[in-house]
Amino acid sequence: MKQWMTLFKKEMIENWRNKKWIWVPIVMMVICSMDLVTYYFLPEILDTVGGVPEGAIMEIPEFTPNEAILLSLEQLSMFGVIVIVLISMGTIAGERHSGISEIILVKPVRYLNYVTSKWIAYVLIANISLLIGMLIAWYYTNLLYGSVEFAVVIKIILFYSLWFTLIVTLSIFFNTIFRVPGLVVAGSMIVIVVMAAINTGIGHRFTWFPNQLSYHIMEMTATGTISRELILTSSIIGGLILILLSSSILLVKKKELVK
Known about the structure:
The chain is mainly α and 259 residues long. The chain is built from 12 helices and no strands.
């Protein structure tokens, strides 16, 4: 445990020095509030730039408070995921490329401790940033659209944190395969895009597919109940996280970073 804490503190200090603990939450705040503010002030924005062309009809959607706060999830599913992949792309691959991993693992460091200390550090950054971003979204929703119960926001954060954790784990997995951070990004994004394409094609038939998580969260927000499909999808995501994390540890061990 002492060894794990030492590695974990190293990761936390490094991420603080790289300002990730500052700029990642700020970016998530912007992502979560962007659509909320834009849609609310869209009429004023259009008037400022000259309005719509004569004869054109533009219908601006009206959102209920619960619908409005879910706008943030749409942006997180795209831009938030990209941010997470980018901040974690060099956590193992970069150390392998620079030789730092050899310095660390020349000592009797357990592969489990090495991988999980990095994994936990980035899971914390991702999900604390998610928490801050969604709280800002909740503030703007209450301010501009109407009241949303705090309990609803907490449920959204808890379930969506599974998706962010899966993305972190996927990035860690590709970190153990490639030595070049750019390839980690490419591999992670290809898998994410393929999963999105599969969900678009057959997601309506497989309601437990991981990418269905956002849809089930929207249902939960609308109905106020946690559906069986949401529990099943969350369980499958949890299983994928365990499989990817275990595979990452085995890959690091198999590649024998210390030579």
